[in-house]
Specification:
Layout (H helix, E strand, L loop, with lengths): L25 H16 L4 E3 L9 E4 L9 E12 L2 E7 L2 E10 L2 E7 L5 E7 H14 L10 H15 L7
Antiparallel strand pairs: 1-2, 2-3, 3-6, 4-5, 6-7
């Protein structure tokens, strides 16, 4: 297994739409394992393939306190949703930024597992929020895009300053 580099907002690659996975093979299983290792090491509770620059519909999630409930979703689709819930979200691709986002409070999701078998899952609370957050990544959407334009501009400039320290005397 290997730790994968996570790309950070405002990297334009975060806005690439992920393609459906046509065959769940050994390469996909290896990528899923590497993504899980990367997520746990970060540490985070979810990671989409988009964030490691692989633009295919693959997500890993574990919202459990003891990191014992790894969930892998391939080609996930939301079948139904109910209610609203407000939560404070952060993202491994937007380090240090936490903002309130409104999401559906309950979702029913269909996906493929690592054997390529379809399954359905009902989720609420933190898991529902996390699934929606990660599925947005697959659509090329980062959670900060739910915020006001002003906030987005501030976040972009803050993160750009975080990664670039250039001082030129000329
Ligand atoms: Ni994220």
């Amino acid at each position: 297994m290997a730790l994968l580099p996570i790309i950070c907002y405002p990297d334009p690659r975060l806005h690439i739409k992920a393609a459906k996975i046509t065959s769940v093979d050994a390469d996909i299983r290896r990528l899923a394992a590497d993504m899980a290792e990367t997520m746990y090491a970060a540490p985070g509770v979810g990671l989409a393939a988009t964030q490691v620059d692989r633009h295919i519909q693959l997500i890993v999630i574990d919202v459990s306190a003891d990191k014992s409930q790894l969930l892998t979703l391939i080609n996930p689709e939301i079948l139904s949703r109910e209610g609203e819930c407000e939560g404070e979200e952060g993202c491994l691709s937007v380090p240090g930024i936490y903002e309130t986002v409104t999401r559906s409070a309950w979702v029913r999701v269909r996906a493929l597992d690592l054997d390529g078998q379809p399954f359905e899952l009902e989720a609420n609370d933190m898991l529902a929020v996390c699934i929606q957050h990660e599925m947005d990544h697959l659509q090329g959407k980062v959670f900060v895009e739910y915020l006001s334009r002003l906030k987005q501009t501030r976040i972009r400039s803050k993160l750009t300053k975080l990664t670039k320290h250039v001082r030129v005397t000329a």
